[in-house]
């Protein structure tokens, strides 16, 4: 899966989880940019991403994620 396909899939997961079809992500988007993005929603997002891509994140994988770009890079590394 190429980086554009990963981005589109992640954006759709965010739209579904936040129930906002108008939500537009950038690599710089972070939790401070989305009102309802709290620690519980972080877990929901990661679980949905794991399911979509057939991944299993460890604490070390997600501990230092700062923004959507970091998340996309992680997914690309784990699916390569």
From TrEMBL:
InterPro entries in UniProt:
ACP-like_sf, PP-bd_ACP
Q: Name one Pfam family in it.
A: PP-binding
Q: Cite the Carrier domain residue spans from the record.
A: 1-79
Cross-referenced Gene3D superfamilies, in alphabetical order?
A: ACP-like
Name by which UniProt lists this protein: Acyl carrier protein
Native source organism of the sequence: Ruthenibacterium intestinale
